[in-house]
Design goal:
Structural class: alpha+beta
Number of strands: 13
Radius of gyration: 30 Å
Low-confidence stretches: none
Strand order of the largest sheet: 8-7-12-13-5-6-11-9-10
Largest sheet: 9 strands, mixed
Length: 732
């Protein structure tokens, strides 16, 4: 087998391992705030009805809707939790593969390509929290821009670089405008630094430097009083100014007027095509302007999540930009001693960062990249030799990294990972580039140290996917399948599985319209119940204007069988962080609905005065020590006769604490109506028992009085073959 074939085999095996780990993690995770349900429902509604922004609410640009709608029509998939996870896995693995291709092409090293593949995939583990979220597509487009832009630049195709980055920037901007603006800002800065004409080059360079200083403060003005925001502004401004000084060392006068024309023309052309397609699908010009530009500008005032800056972040940023300024002003960057310092600094930064996946220091990859990687990016760009041909590639990747770090404002959650994943390829390129410098030093040239360095790199590369696979398989192998439409193969924790199934059963039995607080739109996909309107937002209480809220009130008011699904844990978290829902729709809901069932953070609310049978619930009555135990269950019809009942703690449903079967238990069935009223007298029965309508089942049995965990009791009803035919939560 040739060395090249072996390299491909190693990378293919690593990619397969990452794909398996990603699959296990994606299909064993569901976040209660349910951003994925919001995106899936809006994608489905757009595909069915068009009219993005005017009829179908969205916080994102039209490109993702148009792209996924085309793929949906070509490939024939439905917008479900399952298809959303497959889309996410493709974006996730594609981002890692594009980053690895960039590093592999520049270094011709399978080790560094493999490290980048595993590192970027691990860095972006947060993909599992928000399947089908635009973040996955955004990272893929940014990674493609980094890789293909590098390919075009290093082969001398400046016009292609300009056109390519403009098209990708337009797609990004018309998916999430801030991310697109940051990408285009990086492209503009790189073209400006490399402009051939001296006078325009100087003017453009000063313009970029001024923009670097002003941009974060203008962007963050709404929250600038917050300390974490001021630190953010300092980190970005210092990181970008230091990087611009370093990038000037790699720049060459290669960009002419033709490239600038390609950049402007491609940007306008791609933007016009995407916007035109949205208009053809029913979006108005006003709706497009509001949805893409005006509404996103309001988001910092609606919701923010602060960045947890690690110790020394601001101090390092200020010291770093001061060093960059002093070094370039004094001409140190071309001195061997300073280049040796830079090589040592890269090695030190890489060594500390490698401690993160090896769990030697308690900091995540993304936190390190955001707090320190953005600041240190310029050190990985400076040329270490006069003939450094890889410096332009590092400069381009570093510019994207620093600009994209702004993605984490104003919500520094998953956006931190999405915005800074390019730290991994930049680190790989910088360490590979510094290796020849280390080898010129006597001690660093020793074979033992080279082998040790290679082993550390391999260990880090193997450890990252191994950790993902271990966590993913542990969850996927031990959790029960959810078994709901479009989410059949999601394997979630037992408490979530049973509470979700029971909520779904009661919603389908007692509602014809479903609204949620906050927006939990996977429930609409699982139940098949429509939302009041197509204006579906997660935080509707802060995102929707009063007129839109009134439309929802009007629709709910006309539907006495409407239901409200509440996620209490999410609301408690919002209240703890200072966000208290308010507004006309909130007030109307609180005045017209009441809670009838609560399970593990989920609450079912119905219109005041409605009485319903709470199916798949029950309780164990307290009895005297020597008396028979009494179990009462409220059940919908089952598909097969019930032969036995197992009592379990729902955290361990495979380990029954007691079994009720045979002829000894006293069993009675009372027919009931959907609103819980008796529909006949109780009738004695025996196992196996069959019922074709709603019933209240009472079982009196003798046996060990096994105590169940408070409010964790589960009754599992099985047929003669042992298959589960029903489950009921035992409530207090």
């Amino acid at each position: 087998m040739t060395r090249r074939a072996l390299s491909w085999l190693v990378l293919a095996a690593l990619a397969a391992a990452l794909a398996c780990a990603g699959f296990w993690l994606l299909f064993s995770t569901f976040q209660v705030y349910d951003d994925e349900g919001y995106v899936l429902l809006s994608l489905r509604n757009f595909s069915l009805h068009g009219g993005l922004y005017d009829r179908v609410y969205s916080q994102y640009g039209p490109f993702i809707y148009l792209l996924y709608d085309v793929l949906h029509r070509i490939l024939g998939f439905a917008f479900t939790n399952t298809s959303g996870r497959w889309i996410t896995l493709v974006n996730w693995l594609g981002t890692a593969a594009a980053s690895a291709a960039l590093v592999g092409r520049q270094t011709r090293s399978v080790r560094w390509a493999a490290f980048t593949l595993a590192g970027v995939f691990t860095y972006l583990w947060v993909m599992i929290n928000e399947p089908v979220h635009p973040g996955g597509l955004l990272t893929l487009l940014v990674a493609l821009g980094a890789w293909l832009g590098t390919e075009a630049w290093t082969t001398g195709k400046m016009n292609r670089f300009a056109a390519l980055t403009a098209v990708i920037g337009a797609a990004l901007a018309l998916t999430k405008i801030n991310v697109g603006v940051f990408f285009l800002g990086a492209a503009f800065a790189w073209l400006a630094l490399n402009t051939a004409a001296p006078r325009p080059a100087r003017a453009l360079t000063w313009l970029v430097a001024l923009g670097a200083a002003v941009l974060p403060f203008a962007l963050m003005r709404a929250l600038f009083a917050e300390p974490w925001v001021r630190t953010f502004a300092v980190v970005f401004a210092a990181g970008l100014l230091a990087l611009l000084l370093a990038a000037r060392e790699t720049a060459r006068p290669a960009v002419g007027a033709q490239a600038w024309k390609w950049f402007a023309g491609s940007l306008l052309g791609a933007g016009a095509v995407i916007a035109g397609a949205a208009l053809l699908r029913g979006t108005s010009l006003r709706g497009l302007l509001d949805g893409v530009v005006l509404e996103p500008m309001k988001h910092p005032g609606v919701y923010f999540f602060p960045m947890n800056w690690r110790p020394g972040t601001a101090l390092l940023a200020l010291a770093s930009v001061a060093l960059a300024g002093a070094a370039t002003r004094a001409g140190w960057t071309r001195r061997p001693a300073f280049r040796g310092f830079v090589a040592v600094a890269r090695l030190a930064a890489g060594a500390v960062f490698f401690c993160c996946p090896l769990q030697i220091i308690p900091t995540s990859l993304a936190a390190w990249g955001m707090c320190y990687g953005v600041t240190l990016a310029w050190l990985f760009v400076l040329p270490l030799r006069d003939d450094d041909r890889g410096a332009p590639a590092r400069a381009w990747v570093a510019l994207l990294l620093v600009f994209q770090s702004l993605h984490a404002y104003p919500v520094a959650g998953s956006q931190v990972n999405w915005g800074t994943f390019l730290w991994i390829p930049l680190l790989a390129l910088g360490l590979w580039d510094a290796a020849p410098v280390w080898q010129t030093w006597g001690l660093a040239a020793s074979r033992g140290l080279r082998y040790a360095g290679a082993l550390v790199l391999i260990a880090v590369t193997v450890t990252m996917p191994a950790q993902l696979a271990r966590i993913g398989w542990s969850q996927y192998a031990h959790n029960p399948p959810l078994g709901l439409p479009g989410a059949e193969n999601l394997r979630l924790t037992s408490d979530m599985v049973y509470s979700t199934r029971i909520m779904r059963e009661n919603l389908r039995a007692h509602a014809d319209l479903l609204f949620s607080f906050p927006g939990l739109y996977s429930a609409n996909l699982w139940t098949g119940l429509p939302t009041p309107t197509l204006i579906n937002a997660t935080h509707w209480f802060s995102l929707l204007p009063p007129a839109r809220q009134q439309e929802i009130i009007t629709r709910l008011e006309a539907s006495p069988r409407s239901a409200l699904l509440v996620q209490r844990d999410v609301l408690d978290y919002l209240a703890k962080t200072g966000f208290h829902p308010a507004g006309p729709l909130h007030d109307w809901l609180m005045a017209n609905y009441e809670k009838v069932l609560a399970l593990d953070g989920y609450e079912l609310w119905l219109r005041h005065g409605r009485q319903v049978a709470l199916f798949s619930t029950g309780h164990l009555a307290a009895t005297a020590p020597d008396a028979p135990h009494e179990l009462e269950l409220t059940l919908a019809p089952t598909a097969a006769p019930v032969a036995r009942i197992e009592l379990c703690d729902y955290f361990a449903p495979r380990l029954p604490l007691a079994e009720i079967a045979g002829a000894e238990p006293e069993l009675s069935l009372q027919p009931i109506t959907p609103d819980g009223r008796p529909a006949g007298a109780p009738q004695a029965a025996h196992f196996p028992v069959t019922f074709t309508g709603p019933v209240r089942m009472t079982v009196r049995y003798r046996g060990v009085n096994t105590p169940l965990a408070r409010n964790h009791g589960l009754a599992v009803l099985r047929d003669a073959a042992g298959a589960i035919v029903a489950e009921a939560r035992l409530l207090e």
